[in-house]
Amino acid sequence: MEQNKKQEVHTHKIGIYLWIWGLLFVFSFFSYMVDYMEFQGLLRWSLIVFFMLTKAGLIMAIFMHLYWERWAIVNVLLWPMTLIGVFIAIMVSESYYTFFTRLFYFVAGS
Amino acid sequence: MSQFDITKLPQGPKGFVHDLGSDQRVFKGVPWGKAMMWIFLLSDTFIFSCFLISLMTARASTVVPWPNASEVFGLTVFGTSVPLLLIAIMTFVLITSSGTMAIAVKFGYEKRRKLCAWFLLATAIGGLTFVGMQAFEWSKLIFHDGVRPWANPFGAPQFGSFFFMVTGFHGTHVSIGVIFLFIFARKTFRGDFDTGRKGYFTSMKSDYEAIEILGLYWHFVDLVWVFIFAFFYLW
Q1: Which among B48, B41, B92, B121 has a CA at the least distance from the CA of A66?
Q2: Which residue from A10, A17, A77 is facing B38, i.e. has the nearest CB?
């Protein structure tokens, strides 16, 4: 009996996996094209991040079934991951400071 | 196991409050193995974030030019050099193995044993192909270009140490995944999840949930590669 209940919860049509698989191929191709077409600067970075987050979202939501999980586990996973953004922001400002001191003491001072 | 019907519990934000305030197990409808795998993957996320964030810090703070990954990882095919060709192929191979894994999980829950096992085997072979191409890439960089963790001919010396650390750690994850995929393909072919045969190491009965848990790990490896591809190779 319990096995039957699990089946209803977990299986989806094979089409959805093939679709996501195809989409991941397309987005990977596009992100490769960003390099192939030699886009530079803000355009390059925003395209890379956009394709990266889209692919990550598709994998987590569909392949890892997070879209069908209950909010309790989804929130426990996604909020700590979001906090990594704070860490990135701190380290960006830290690395600019390091860069500045290196320019100041190594390059200007030598 | 569970005495309640999970589909009758409140969903969405209300379900979140209900589950946390239920004074019982929080992750309802999630087997303990799956919850543990998710928590492991969360901690692994932090490890990989630390690697990639320190890569960002090193790259943003160096006064020496950073090597152009597009040229370093380019391949010459029929006389024309194609940037990042091997890396692009590796990406497609890993995504394909992720797709076959998702389908294997689906067939597992539907108890179509043979199909599930074949897709697990396909996933394992995809992973093995990926590791093989990575070995080729490493040997090219080490023996042909002379990249070392402390120096390389292309630019900032940190490039080598980050390359070996980040792709090495990811490659280790892939290799461990491949080993488990082969083991689970064998177990599935043998019908362990139908007969309730006990595992060699765990001495516990297992069921097709185990394949979803392995699948979570495998998709995570693919997920990490998405970020490495973006931040190490493309940025």
Answers
A1: B41
A2: A77
Task: Note whether A28 contacts B88, CB cutoff 8 Å.
Answer: yes
Q: What is the pLDDT of residues B50-83, one digit of tens each?
A: 999 999 999 999 988 999 888 888 888 887 788 8
Task: Judge whether B217 lies within some domain.
Answer: yes
> Tens digit of pLDDT per residue, chain A (110 long)?
444 444 444 578 899 999 999 999 999 999 999 988 889 999 999 999 999 999 999 999 999 999 999 999 999 999 999 999 999 999 999 999 999 999 988 876 65
Burial category of B78 from C-beta neighbours within 10 Å (exposed 0-12, middle 13-18, buried 19 and up) = exposed
Nearest CA in chain B to A42: B235
Nearest CA to B184 out of B90, B94, B101 is that of: B101
Question: Does residue B24 lie in a domain region?
Answer: no
pTM to 2 decimals?
0.92
The span from the CA of A87 to the CA of B83, in Å, is 32
Please tell me the number of Cα atoms within 13 Å of A24 on its side-chain side: 30
pLDDT at B206: 84
Whether residue A31 contacts residue B83, with contact meaning beta carbons closer than 8 Å, is answered with no
* B15 lies in some domain: no
Give the number of domains in chain B.
1
Q: Which domain holds residue B168?
A: 67-234
Q: Which member of A10, A99, A103 has the closest CB to residue B109?
A: A10
**Residue B173: CATH number of its domain:** 1.20.120.80
- Measured between CB atoms, does B61 come within 8 Å of chain A? yes
* Per-position DSSP letters for chain A, written without gaps between them: -HHHHHHHHH---HHHHHHHHHHHHHHHHHHHHHHHTT--HHHHHHHHHHHHHHHHHHIIIIIT-GGGS-HHHHHHHHHHHHHHHHHHHHHHHHHHHHHHHHIIIIITT-
Rounded CA Rg of chain B:
21
Tens digit of pLDDT for each residue in B128-148?
999 999 999 999 999 999 999
* Res A19: pLDDT: 95
Q: Does residue B57 form part of some domain?
A: no
